[in-house]
Amino acid sequence: MYLLYDLALMIVALVAVPYYFFRGLRQGKIRRGIRERLGFFPGSKLDPVRGEKIIWVHAVSVGETRAAVPLVRELKRQRPDHRLILSNVTETGHAVAQEIPEIDLCLFFPFDFTRVVRRVFQKVRPRMIIIVETEIWPNFVRQAADRGIPVILANGRISDRSYPRYRWIRFLLRPILDRFSAFCMQSELDAERIIGLGAAKERVQVTGNLKFDTKPLELGQTQIEEFKIELRLPKNLQIIVAGSTHAGEEEIILEAYRKLLQEGRNILLMLVPRHPERCRSVSELLASNGISFTLRSRIDRLDRPLRTGEVLLVDTMGEMLRLYATADLVFLGGSLVNIGGHNALEASLMKKPVIFGPCMQNFKEISNLLIQAGGGRQVSREELPEVMAHLLDHPKQRRDMGEKGYSLFQDNVGATAQTLEVIEEIIGKSQWDERTRFIGG
Known about the structure:
Structural class: alpha/beta
């Protein structure tokens, strides 16, 4: 099975690598970390963990990395004698990971070829691997388990979109899932699904969603006002932040924005594409629609405040919570096109009212909880301008929605503690020896 898997990966790579290479050239962006993904590390790269006891956390991209932060912080507090590695597949996730102070080493996740994974494990020998959400890499999991390294799935979820696909190949998934030491799932439904795919029932626990354990950004009103000044945001304008938007979605948002402006509102739109490299195409869209815009990275060159009807296009990373803090109203992207949505809790964390479209299948539980609590509104494309207008005209309702969304965190905290209990239990049962330590070379 694994030989066939390697051959399939090779065929995919022969097509995908040239495609992404030339697409990167067109976008002026070349994928970084290729040698690292192949298991070749510069001489000093692994120095921070050389000879140390290691826990390896893997989070594919930005959302998973942010979800892992509460767990990473508690791991570091409880296991100060261990070094923490955090790996990512995407460059955006890698950039976020490098800002987490508790992480000792950030790596790009290796390509899942047998020889590549073997090469990586010859150089990095962790005591434990924690995979955040549902990243099932057959060779990586197999070779870790064969070396006696426990593999834990944390914050596990099986989306509506993924589940039918997994069911088609569950006969292939079962032997891979059998090599996991534990599955810490977000909900009862996720637990039922992973068991249905072949996970041993006694290894599956419902521990909750780590995203509810995210700490709010400590921003006082003075700091928010200073940030608004930095962004050239005038006090007399209401700010709409459209976060994590995707292709095909900006057009809908701009259409709603124009309708609101035609009604005479003093508003300003902040557009935050999910992938910063898309800012070039979004810039062209804005220009073709005759909309004046300024890039976040160039805001310091603007010698005046932004004006109503303009757009602040965010081409930077790591500021989402601060951007939400400036908003009067938040729209969550990935929900008007069939992406499956993103984490609406980030806006609620900053006590902001959040609206999203109908395509929230990847975050169905969170979106339903927000709607039930009164902290979020789900709208169709046609309803978007009307709902925005209503909320902009009713400040008390916006404040109430923000408070109700924030209350969800207080009602659902605890996933980190429950996940750590599972981790500590497995560590307690494991027999470590010098072979589980880092060996350079």
